[in-house]
Automatic annotation (TrEMBL):
This is Biopolymer transporter ExbD. GO terms for biological process: protein transport. Transmembrane segments: none annotated. It is a single-pass membrane protein; Single-pass type II membrane protein. Pfam families: ExbD. InterPro entries: ExbD. It comes from the Bacteria. It comes from Candidatus Coprenecus avistercoris. Belongs to the ExbD/TolR family. It is found in: Cell membrane. One of its GO terms (molecular function) is transmembrane transporter activity. Coiled coil: none annotated. Keywords: Cell membrane, Membrane, Protein transport, Transmembrane, Transmembrane helix, Transport.
Protein backbone atom coordinates (compact mmCIF):
# COMPACT_ATOMS: atom_id res chain seq x y z
CA UNK A 1 0.00 0.00 0.00
CA UNK A 2 1.50 3.32 -1.09
CA UNK A 3 1.11 6.22 1.35
CA UNK A 4 1.07 9.64 -0.27
CA UNK A 5 1.87 12.94 1.37
CA UNK A 6 -0.82 15.56 1.26
CA UNK A 7 1.56 18.53 1.66
CA UNK A 8 4.31 19.30 -0.75
CA UNK A 9 7.48 21.15 0.09
CA UNK A 10 7.77 24.51 -1.72
CA UNK A 11 11.32 25.55 -2.64
CA UNK A 12 10.30 29.27 -2.82
CA UNK A 13 11.95 31.87 -0.54
CA UNK A 14 9.88 34.68 0.97
CA UNK A 15 11.48 38.10 0.45
CA UNK A 16 8.94 40.06 2.49
CA UNK A 17 11.05 40.11 5.66
CA UNK A 18 14.12 41.20 3.67
CA UNK A 19 12.24 44.11 2.09
CA UNK A 20 11.02 45.19 5.53
CA UNK A 21 14.60 45.34 6.79
CA UNK A 22 15.77 47.31 3.76
CA UNK A 23 12.87 49.74 4.15
CA UNK A 24 13.65 50.32 7.84
CA UNK A 25 17.34 50.89 7.05
CA UNK A 26 16.40 53.39 4.35
CA UNK A 27 14.23 55.35 6.78
CA UNK A 28 16.98 55.26 9.42
CA UNK A 29 19.61 56.66 7.06
CA UNK A 30 17.28 59.35 5.71
CA UNK A 31 16.47 60.56 9.22
CA UNK A 32 20.06 60.52 10.44
CA UNK A 33 21.42 62.27 7.34
CA UNK A 34 19.17 65.28 7.98
CA UNK A 35 20.60 65.64 11.49
CA UNK A 36 24.12 66.32 10.21
CA UNK A 37 24.99 70.02 10.49
CA UNK A 38 27.34 71.16 7.71
CA UNK A 39 28.21 74.38 9.50
CA UNK A 40 30.73 73.52 12.22
CA UNK A 41 31.38 77.13 13.28
CA UNK A 42 29.21 78.82 15.89
CA UNK A 43 27.72 81.87 14.18
CA UNK A 44 24.86 84.12 15.21
CA UNK A 45 23.05 84.49 11.88
CA UNK A 46 20.53 87.25 11.17
CA UNK A 47 16.90 86.13 11.22
CA UNK A 48 14.64 85.87 8.17
CA UNK A 49 11.32 84.33 7.18
CA UNK A 50 12.27 83.77 3.53
CA UNK A 51 13.53 80.38 2.49
CA UNK A 52 15.23 79.39 -0.76
CA UNK A 53 15.05 76.01 -2.44
CA UNK A 54 18.48 76.12 -4.11
CA UNK A 55 21.20 74.03 -2.52
CA UNK A 56 24.70 75.45 -2.31
CA UNK A 57 27.57 73.02 -2.65
CA UNK A 58 30.14 75.30 -1.01
CA UNK A 59 29.81 77.51 2.05
CA UNK A 60 31.96 80.45 3.13
CA UNK A 61 31.71 81.51 6.77
CA UNK A 62 32.85 84.85 8.15
CA UNK A 63 33.64 84.79 11.86
CA UNK A 64 33.97 88.14 13.64
CA UNK A 65 36.13 88.64 16.71
CA UNK A 66 35.00 92.09 17.98
CA UNK A 67 37.48 92.15 20.89
CA UNK A 68 40.35 91.83 18.38
CA UNK A 69 38.66 93.68 15.52
CA UNK A 70 39.48 90.84 13.11
CA UNK A 71 37.60 88.52 10.74
CA UNK A 72 38.37 84.98 9.71
CA UNK A 73 37.07 83.19 6.62
CA UNK A 74 36.30 79.48 6.58
CA UNK A 75 35.36 77.35 3.57
CA UNK A 76 32.87 74.49 4.07
CA UNK A 77 32.96 74.87 7.87
CA UNK A 78 36.66 74.03 8.09
CA UNK A 79 38.03 75.26 11.44
CA UNK A 80 41.26 76.27 9.67
CA UNK A 81 40.96 79.92 8.61
CA UNK A 82 41.65 80.92 4.99
CA UNK A 83 43.12 84.33 4.06
CA UNK A 84 40.76 86.51 2.02
CA UNK A 85 43.16 86.49 -0.95
CA UNK A 86 42.89 82.68 -1.15
CA UNK A 87 39.09 82.51 -1.13
CA UNK A 88 38.55 83.26 -4.83
CA UNK A 89 41.01 80.60 -6.11
CA UNK A 90 39.57 78.07 -3.64
CA UNK A 91 36.01 78.78 -4.82
CA UNK A 92 37.08 78.51 -8.45
CA UNK A 93 38.64 75.13 -7.71
CA UNK A 94 35.62 73.82 -5.80
CA UNK A 95 32.97 75.10 -8.25
CA UNK A 96 34.70 74.49 -11.58
CA UNK A 97 32.79 71.28 -12.41
CA UNK A 98 29.40 72.55 -11.22
CA UNK A 99 26.78 73.27 -13.88
CA UNK A 100 25.00 75.73 -11.53
CA UNK A 101 27.79 77.19 -9.36
CA UNK A 102 26.29 78.41 -6.10
CA UNK A 103 27.85 79.12 -2.74
CA UNK A 104 26.34 80.28 0.52
CA UNK A 105 27.65 82.98 2.83
CA UNK A 106 27.35 82.42 6.57
CA UNK A 107 28.19 85.74 8.22
CA UNK A 108 28.11 86.50 11.92
CA UNK A 109 25.48 89.03 12.92
CA UNK A 110 28.21 91.50 13.93
CA UNK A 111 30.13 91.31 10.63
CA UNK A 112 30.05 94.61 8.74
CA UNK A 113 28.21 94.49 5.42
CA UNK A 114 31.45 95.45 3.63
CA UNK A 115 32.91 92.00 4.31
CA UNK A 116 29.82 90.29 2.91
CA UNK A 117 29.86 92.54 -0.15
CA UNK A 118 33.50 91.58 -0.79
CA UNK A 119 32.40 87.93 -1.06
CA UNK A 120 29.49 88.93 -3.30
CA UNK A 121 31.95 90.72 -5.59
CA UNK A 122 33.89 87.46 -5.95
CA UNK A 123 30.63 85.79 -6.98
CA UNK A 124 29.86 88.52 -9.50
CA UNK A 125 33.32 88.34 -11.09
CA UNK A 126 33.01 84.57 -11.52
CA UNK A 127 29.27 84.54 -12.32
CA UNK A 128 28.35 82.45 -9.27
CA UNK A 129 25.01 82.50 -7.52
CA UNK A 130 25.06 83.50 -3.87
CA UNK A 131 22.84 82.50 -0.97
CA UNK A 132 23.02 84.59 2.18
CA UNK A 133 22.32 82.22 5.07
CA UNK A 134 20.01 83.36 7.84
CA UNK A 135 18.49 81.77 10.91
CA UNK A 136 14.74 81.04 10.77
CA UNK A 137 12.52 83.36 12.81
Amino acid sequence: MAIKRRTKVEPAFSMSSMTDIVFLLLIFFLVTSTLINPNALRLLLPKSTNQISAKATVSVSIKHYPELGTYTYHINGDPQAVPFADIEPALQLLLRDSDDPTFSIYADRTVPIEEVVNLMNIAKRNQYKVILATAPE
